[in-house]
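USER: Fancy drafting a protein?

ASSISTANT:
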Amino acid sequence: MTDNFEIVIFLMTILIVLSAFTDKIKLPYPILLVFTGLIIGFVPFLPNLKLEPDVVFLVFLPPLLYDAAFKTSWLDFKKEIRPISTLAISLVFFTTLSVAVAAHYLVPGFTWPLAFLLGAIVSPPDAVAASGIIKGLGLNKKVITIIEGESLLNDASALIAYRYALAAVLTGSFVLWKAGLQFILVAGGGVAAGFVVGYVLAFAHKKIVNNALVETSLSLLTPFLAYGLAEKFHVSGILAVVTAGIFISWRSREVFTSQTRLRTTAVWDTIIFLLNGIIFILIGLQLPELVTDIPKQTLFTLIGYGVLISVVTIIIRIIWVFAGAYHQQLSNRKNSNKTAESTDWKNVLIVAWTGTRGVVSLATALALPLVLDNGTEFPKRHSILLLAFTVIMITLVVQGLTLPLLIKLLKIKPSTGQQQKEEDDLSFLLTKESLDYINHNLEGKVDTLILERIKNRYEFNYTMLFNRDNALQKHEIESQFKSVNQFLFARLKILDHQRKLLMKFQTEGSYDEEALVKAEREIDIEELQIKSLMEKTEASAKAANDVISG
C-alpha cells in the first residue's frame, strides 16, 4: 500500500514539473507524457506501475468523460448529431470489421474471433487524447464539436463490440441479430440511466441552498453514480456518464449558485489535470512489461504487423469521413437544403486525421483474461496487447505530432474572430438590456446619486461596445481601449496595495485571521474579474482593428 502511494506521488511530481515547461517544449501534452512514461519504464531504479483495467474503467474514465460531457454544448452537439453518431457508431463497427479482416489475413494464427477482438480494441479514437491534442489549435467550432462528440460516444460502441468478440473467443459462437438487439438495449439503457441520475441530481442541486461545499462534493460523485447505476443493470456506463454530464450542464445555470460554479470549476480543473496526466504517463509505463522476454525477431515482426494495422485504421477513417461528408453534401443538394453549411474539405481532412487511440484501447487489451473457461491459456493474448500498444503509439505520435503541421500546411486560420464577435455581441446585448432595466425598473427605487453611478458604468461599456461596430478610426479605437486598460490597470495596482496591507496586518496581528481570509477572498474575486475584462478588452481591440484593416 505504501509503495503504491509513493509511486503515485512520484508520478504526480513528474507531471507537475513537466506541466511547468509544456509551452517551452512545444510538444502536444499527451505525447510528452507518454514519452515520459516510456523513459520512466525503462530506467531500472525508477518505479514501474502496471495499469489495472478496473482502475481505468472505475476510477479514471467516469470523471474524464463527465468533465468532457459537461463542457459540451447540447445545442452544438444536437446540431452535429448526424456526423457524430456516424463516426461514433458506424465507423467504430466498420473499423472493427476492417481491422479484423487485415489481422486475420496478415497476422499468422489470428482466427476470426481473435481478429474481431483486436478490431474492437483499436477501433475507438480516445476522448482524452483528442481533446489534449486539438486544444489551443484554433479549430473551427463545428470540427471541435464533431471530434469531441464522437470521442464521447465511441467508447460505448467499441466496448459493446469488444464484449461480443470476447464472448465469441470464449464460447466459440456468435449470433449477429442477438448482438444487434443487445447493442440497442445496452446503449438505450445507458442513456436512460444517465438521464435518471442527471434529473435526480439536478433536482438535489436545486434544493441545496448556500452550501457550495456539498454541491461540489455531489458533482464529484455524479459520474461514479451514473456509471455504477448503469453497470448494475448491465447497460452502458459510459453513455450513462455522458448523458448525465450533458443533462446537468444544460441545467447548470438554473440549479448552480455563483459560488458553486466558481468552486466546482477550480476543483474539477485540478482533478482533470491530474487524471489526464497520470493516465498518459501510465500508458507509456506499460511498454517495458510488454517487450520483456520477447525475442528481438518476434518483437520486430509484431511491431511490423502493428504498423500495418495502424495504417488500416488511419486509411479506413480517412475514407469513411470523406465519403460521409460527400454523401451529406449530395443529400443537402438533393433536398435543396440551402440553409445547410457547405463542407470545407480542409475541415473534413482535420476530422479524418484526428483518430488517435488511447487509454480505453489499452485498458480493454489489458482486461483480456489470462485463461479460457477450460483452463487453457488465452490464445495470442500477448500479441494482441503488443499490437494494440503499437497502434496507440503510432496514431498518438504520428497523428498527434503532424496535426498542428497539417493545420499550418492547410493554412487554416484560428476561428477566434467569430467567437470574439459572438462574445462581444452578447456583452453588448446584456449591457443594453441592463440599461433598459435600470431606466424602467430602478428609477424612484434607488437613490439618484447611486443610480447615476450605476448608469455611468453601464453607459461606458455601452459606448465602447457600440462604437466598436460603428467604424471608428483606428486611433479612436486605440484611444478608447487604452483608457479602459488604464482604468483596469489602476484597479489592479490598488488591489496589489490592499494585499500588501493584508500581509502587514497579518504580521502585526491587528486583525483576526478569519477577517483577513474573507477580505483576501473578495480581493481575489475582484482580481479575477479585472483580468478577465483586460483579456476581453484586448481581444475586442484586436477584432475591431482587424475589421478596419480588412
